[in-house]
Amino acid sequence: MDQTIVTVDAFTNRPFAGNPAAVCVLDAYPDDEWMQGVAREMNLSEMAFLVRRSDGDWDLRWFSPTVEVDICGHATLASAHVLWQDRHAEKGSALRFHTRSGVLGAEPDGDWIELDFPAAPADDPSVEVRELPSEDQLRAFKPDMAELEEATARVVYYTAPGDDGFDYADRVFGPKVGIPEDPATGSAHCTLGPLWASRLGRDEMKARQLSARGAEFRVRVTGDRVKISGQAVTMLRATLGGV
């Protein structure tokens, strides 16, 4: 059966920016090998596969080109965008996703989409936070990819104080999971949001990712949850045949 795949640029309001994610809505999950194969074929940092549950919620799984991942912000944002846009869900309705990282949420906020994610401590061994003194230094930074591949953490976040109305900035590197530099990483703010909220003394912030494509976020820390907002643009609709 032919299968529709939609690609979306997430955490941006313009084409060719933010982070592209592929979204595939299924009637039921096929085997993991098939999903990993499709993600490898799409060759984007993550791909989302969704199946509607009997209670109206959604099961959501994410795959990079090499592995299934535990949490992904930009592909969740893209998923919400596609579900509303393609009328899989009532436009404007709140969405609930059942994932490896628990239940996540998404709601429209004007032209933005607000995600509801769990806060993640900075000492989580799967990620590492490294700080630089300024946005200029962060933008110019050239990482040693060989060193990052040897790091204990699967993903390394570099962050710095923000400029031009942004509270903080970041860059994200994950060569261990097949992503040398991620263009836009919503889940990074599960860790960086609480860190900067504590440092700045406020719960609502604006952040940007200084990748080549660039991305912008609104971040709101509420207890043990982080609300991460962004925009999304549909880029491509394709049919995967012969499967």
Written overview of the protein:
The protein is built from 5 helices and 16 strands. By secondary structure, the chain is α+β, with helices and mostly antiparallel strands. The chain folds into 2 domains: 3-118 and 229-240, Diaminopimelate Epimerase, Chain A, domain 1 (Roll), CATH 3.10.310.10; 127-228, Diaminopimelate Epimerase, Chain A, domain 1 (Roll), CATH 3.10.310. The chain is globular, with a radius of gyration of 17 Å. The model has no long low-confidence stretch (mean pLDDT 95).
Give the strand tally.
16
CATH class of the largest domain: Alpha Beta
Q: Label the overall shape.
A: globular
User: pLDDT average, as an integer?
Assistant: 95
Order of helices and strands: EEHEEEHEEEEHHEEEHEEEE
* Rg over C-alpha atoms, rounded to the nearest angstrom: 17 Å
* CATH fold field value of the largest domain: Diaminopimelate Epimerase, Chain A, domain 1
Largest sheet: 16 strands, mixed
Task: Tell me the strand percentage band.
Answer: 35-45%
What is the percent of helical residues?
10-25%
Number of helices: 5
> What is the domain total for the residues?
2
